[in-house]
Amino acid sequence: MRPVKGDLMEHLRSQLEMWRKCRAANDDDRPSGWAFGGLEDLLLKRGHTFTRATGRPPIEPLPRACFGMSYHVANRRKTPWLYCEGYAIPRSTGLAMHHGWVVHRDRPTLAHDLAWEPGEAVYLGFIFDMNYVREVYRASGRRQYSVLTAYWIDCPLITGATALDSVTIPQTSTEQYDK
């Protein structure tokens, strides 16, 4: 793959918009009344932007383990790290992917990637309250770390069964989450 040229966040948003349109055109069986048309729709309407931090991540990155690594770092006792999830795109590939990362509560717009090699990347997603992340993880039988695509509990953030604002942390008020 070729590196992406131009605005990386715009490239991420355009990929999500394309997927959102494909899903809307082919998703006739989606129950009416859902809050969002899918994960892409949720992120485009409500997601927050993050840029990649340039410093060392809190642990050595492990490829293909973004959700698990992020969960374990954010789940430590009295950790300053907060669990994030959404879509991300590295400049090196230009391919948007469902992804997990952490932010430090003192710098909530800087993503610390625990799975990708160093390099420029942008992120679109949410900082999640760790109590909700633990709850979703337990509901999966301790097999799945992702909270946005929690199909085992009927995707409550996409359907609207769980209010997004009740389980996410605003980027501007992370100091209250010193857990």
Please explain how this structure is put together:
There is one protein chain. The chain is an alpha+beta fold and 179 residues long. It has one domain. 30% of the residues lie in helices and 22% in strands. The protein is built from 6 helices and 6 strands, in the order H-H-E-H-E-E-E-E-H-H-H-E. It has a 5-stranded mixed beta barrel with strand order 1-4-3-2-5, surrounded by 4 helices. Strand 2 (81-90) and strand 3 (97-104) form a beta hairpin. It is globular.
Number of helix segments? 6
How much of the residues is beta strand, in percent?
15-25%
Q: Structural class, judged by helices and strands?
A: alpha+beta
Shape: globular
What is the number of E strands? 6
Give me the strand/helix succession. HHEHEEEEHHHE
Q: What is the averaged pLDDT score? A: 89
Widest sheet, order of strands: 1-4-3-2-5
What's the story with the biggest beta sheet? 5 strands, mixed, barrel
The value of Rg in angstroms is 16 Å
When the domains are counted, the total is 1
Per-chain topology:
Elements: H1 8-26, H2 39-46, E1 48-52, H3 66-74, E2 81-90, E3 97-104, E4 107-112, E5 121-128, H4 130-139, H5 156-159, H6 164-167, E6 168-169
Parallel strand pairs: 1-4
Antiparallel strand pairs: 1-5, 2-3, 2-5, 3-4, 5-6
